Amino acid sequence: MTQKVAVLGTGKIGEALLSGMIRAGWAPADLLVTARRPERAEELRTRYGVTPVTNPEAAKTADTLILTVKPQDMGTLLDELAPHIPADRLVISGAAGIPTSFFEARLTTGTPVVRVMTNTPALVDEAMSVISAGSHATEAHLAHAEEIFGAVGKTLRVPESQQDACTALSGSGPAYFFYLVEAMTDAGILLGLPRDKAHELIVQSAIGAAVMLRDSGEHPVKLRENVTSPAGTTINAIRELENHGVRAALIAALEAARDRSRQLASGNNG
What we know:
The protein has an 8-stranded mixed beta sheet with strand order 3-2-1-4-5-6-7-8, with helices on both faces. Strand 1, helix 1 and strand 2 form a beta-alpha-beta unit. The protein starts with a strand and ends in a 5-residue tail after the last helix. The protein has about 270 residues and is an alpha/beta fold. Helix 7 crosses helix 12 (about 245-265) and helix 8 (about 175-190) packs across helix 9. The chain has helices at about 10-25, 40-50, 55-60, 75-80, 100-105, 140-150, 165-170, 175-190, 195-215, 220-225, 235-245, 245-265; strands at about 5-10, 30-35, 50, 65, 90-95, 115, 125-135, 155. The chain is built from 12 helices and 8 strands.
């Protein structure tokens, strides 16, 4: 792996990428980082052996630029980078809601752009990263993006028109599960369990259920039915979930997340 890769705006997700890439075989000497605060850049140098640079230096030096700043900061970053990025650089965006056309309009004509929506399980190498090609991105560019993000989890290619839906499902997805675990923990306390025991019961149940979903090949309805015996405890709980409109609430929540992703794409950051 001789290509130089730069991670610009290296926060938690950017650091997770760096760490995963090094474990996957990238040489730290081939990895560049930028950070808003000098002490953060030095921390990354000390921890991983990577090279801190300025944003223009990254644009001039790296073969691949991974932009991990917040969506509202992307325009400012591109203004800084655009004069320094040759058309043969691969630009990978990790910003929610921003289409590849936003980058292509601000960079040298022909610059390949790949859009990636990953999620916070990248921190534990269990990310779901969704990858889409811009107008000038080739199969080789997509494969390179898959190689990078595959270091921290799974990847999936989709048409860019599906990115907002994927952002709602998997980009924001971990938060929904955390929210559910929080609610179930509160229920466990209400039922008389200490918080630590309720938490352990729910987390292990969640891990077990996720592994079954991944490895069994069974439809989730079938797996649920296997737990739902006639006139038993589970079917009574399911009835209450349906009575309270939980399924409809989840659908509405994901539609709201998708709509917000579309708003970000249109430049509405309010």
